[in-house]
Amino acid sequence: VVLIGFGVCSMGLKNGVERITKVMMSCLLVVILCLVVRSVTLPGASEGLRFYLMPDFSKISEQGAGTVIYAAMGQAFFTLSLGIGAMAIFGSYIGRDRSLTGESINITLLDTFVALMSGLVIFPACSAFQVDPGQGPGLVFITLPNIFNAMPGGRLWGSLFFMFLTFSAFSTIIAVFENIVSFAMDLWHWPRKKAVLFNIAAIILLSMPCVLGFNLWSDFAPFGAGSTIQDLEDFIISNNLLPIGSLIYLLFCTSRYGWGWKNFLAEADQGDGIKFPAWTRCYVSYILPLIVLVIFLQGYNEKFQLLNKLSALFH
After folding, report:
1. CA torsion, points 140, 141, 142, 145, in degrees to nearest 10?
2. 306 pLDDT band (50/70/90 cuts)?
3. Tens-digit pLDDT profile for residues 85-95
4. Which pTM does this prediction carry?
5. Given a cut of 90, is residue 24 above it in pLDDT?
6. Closest by alpha carbon to 128, among 136, 120, 138?
7. CA 43 to chain centre
């Protein structure tokens, strides 16, 4: 997977990354829309639709408003690739004939649309086939095969879906690889092929702790029994690099020690499309960084129960 991903990046941005991911993602979207039609028409699907689309605000008080907001914001960071550079790299490739704000809105709307469609596939099918909807990512491999079994030509549709789902995951890998390849090209002025070869070796080497964490180093449990090195790496990325990276972006765009607000607006508003609302300066400069900081601290509290320990200490 590493070699294929870097192989696509070595072909260049337009001939490799753009051309291949555009075809893969378009095909996946077509299959998802077909599955939506089949899922919502299954006998018993209405209960799943109600579970998915009708909000139950009592659950917020049960879970805690802070926990719900933290989970939602964390998902937003993750799904939009904010905080660790992937989105910034592709933003830097956009021509100056299109405004950054307009393109950002398009990306957010498309991402949200695909997420909603995926829910319309999964949850009605859970209801129709009596599957617990709280089983997480494994639902993809439980409910979807049932949908395919209930479809004419289900084996073909199933093969296409899982093939394109693999391509979708692969497109994320390509995006991250393009990020570090571009970093090496910009910082060290390397040609693309040299940057690709260097990062192939670096990725394989840096992946070894995670790989060995499931066998030779499985005794190392950073967060207690049952945890692995992968859990530690996920914590470093999800709970640290994503929120901290987003905070750095915010401060860079708004602080006089970075771009500064005026320079940020001038860059974001170049080209045709929706312009960045200048009236949000106070929110973006002060309130939003505070929200990101709270999310960062909430992540540590969720992981280590810091508030509970602090309360116990004082008592």
Report:
1. 100
2. low
3. 677 778 888 88
4. 0.81
5. no
6. 120
7. 33
CB 46 within 8 A of CB 127: yes
What pLDDT shows up at residue 279?
95
Quick check: helix, strand or coil at residue 98? strand
How many alpha carbons fall within 13 Å on the CB side of residue 151?
23
Query: pLDDT at position 305, please?
Result: 77
**Phi first, then psi: what are they for 186, rounded to 5°?**
-75, -40
Q: What sign does the CA torsion over 190, 194, 199, 205 have?
A: negative
Is it the case that residue 99 has pLDDT exceeding 80?
A: yes
Q: What is the mean pLDDT of the chain?
A: 88
For residues 308 and 39, give the distance between their C-alpha atoms in angstroms, rounded to a whole number. Answer: 43
CA distances from 53 to 49, 70, 117, 168 (A): 6, 21, 12, 25
DSSP states of 182-223 as a string?
A: HHHHHHH---HHHHHHHHHHHHHHHHHHHHHTTTTTTT--TT
Helix ranges (H only) for the chain are 2-10, 19-40, 45-53, 58-63, 65-79, 86-93, 100-128, 143-149, 154-188, 192-212, 229-236, 242-254, 261-268, 281-282, 288-304, 306-314
